[in-house]
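Reposting from the mailing list since nobody answered there.

I have sequence plus structure tokens for a pair of proteins and want to know whether others read the tokens the same way I do. The first protein:
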Amino acid sequence: MALTACETVDTSNGVKTRSNTKTGALIGAGIGAVVGGLSNKKGDQARKNAILGAGIGALAGGGVGAYMDRQNKDLRSELEGRNVYVTRSGDNIILSMPGDVTFSSGSADLNGGFMPVLNDVATILNQYPSTYIDVVGHADSQGTDAFNMDLSERRANAVAGYLVGQKVKSERIYVAGAGESSPIASNDTADGRARNRRVEITLRPIQE
């Protein structure tokens, strides 16, 4: 669902994000995709056009799997033991960054100690430019829906903005907050809430 009228632009990093993503849509570069991996095909085409216009090439069908295999291997090798969880799902790669590692409680300011990890993530992303990068923030159920939505958006934008600062092309990036709508653990325990406070980066191949 494309809801570009609700977009705002953070001029400090050039990444577009939505001012109110209560509907759970990824908004950026004038297109939309539903949080949770269900892409808007028309939106992906517009995004692809912008990416190709930025000089980034698309992948041919037979080479997609091998390309993502190499990227997955390099990410796992670089991020082993560094509090970023790398998951392969078909041709997609998901990086999950726990909020208690990347941010202080209730804050959208990146922890300084995590920046070297994001530097390494950016290095790999720049080595494999033929991927879409969807950055989505998530929150636990503590606090109001509005607070959690806003916090998840700001955290996602902080991560995306840092990557752009490391020369990752902004045309590749979508930013959104999902609030507390997509927990991966129970919010009834401290450990579960810590797992739910996270930023996820989904990498999808740009195909011809």
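The second protein, same order (residues first, tokens after):
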Amino acid sequence: MTQDVRDAIIIGSGPAGYTAAIYLGRAGYRPLIIAGALTPGGQLVNTTEVENFPGFPEGILGPDLMENMRAQAEKFGAEIEYDDVTSVDFSQPVKSVVTDSGTTYQAHSVVITTGSEYRKLGVPGEQEYSGRGVSYCATCDGFFFKNKPIVVIGGGDSAMEEADFLSRYGSSVTLIHRRDQFRASKIMVDRVEANPNISLRLNSVVTAVRGDSGGATSIELEDTVTGERTAIEANGVFVAIGYTPQTSFLGQSVKLDQDGYILTSPDATSTSVPGVFAAGDAVDRVYRQAISAAGSGCKAALDAQAFLGALQSEEQLQASAS
């Protein structure tokens, strides 16, 4: 089933998608948001308190922030479909977007804000014990490991936040990082180092997750300096080592870099295809903050508005000439 041609479609939600929808909605374009079937709202729906989003001096829960953004987008005329995009066709002036339900949507402009997904360790036992000890979301699963040994793997802000959060549940929390220095912000590192319930294991990589019929029981480590192999008891194994952009559905429709991030023009959100724009963590491999994603969503909406305005002016000129 093919829908009528719309002005704008936003693929993805989260801070970038909802902000783009707010701006396009206020401009009168009534965008369609294809928000995803399982994870509408992006990664913030799995976050506890967000302390660094401007306007909330006391902080705000991640799901509440996303719910507010969604409601604001709908207030200004955005329509939301909770479905997944499986393929696109950007080869024609009218772009086509196909969803998992079999529906084809068409629009003059498309904004891609599909974000990124958790990166896996790729070691023996990780897949086997996924959901039975191995987790990628502390706020989702931390409660299940109350008074049990926990390890967190990673060295960025996400790993720090997860270790700090999990320290209220686990009998112990060990933060494992492959280098001798963290890439996380200083305030997050200071918070973890000051937490008496968290111990650090640096210059170490996980080589396997071990367990039994009840779930994960330990991890195996290798020291990157000495090569020594050891084991740490762990019922909860929380992986926070980065992300992979959710762009596989795009195929060759727009230019991507070697890691799958969408390439955009310098100082703009336009992609290699006129009328197609991108924002948020599907583009940004550096900052990965809710506020930077929201800002890029604003930019993408303004770029899309400019494109649609020029398109309408051209159509009016052609109509007057005929």
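Reply #1 (J.P.):
I read it the same way you do. The chain is about 25% helix and 30% strand.
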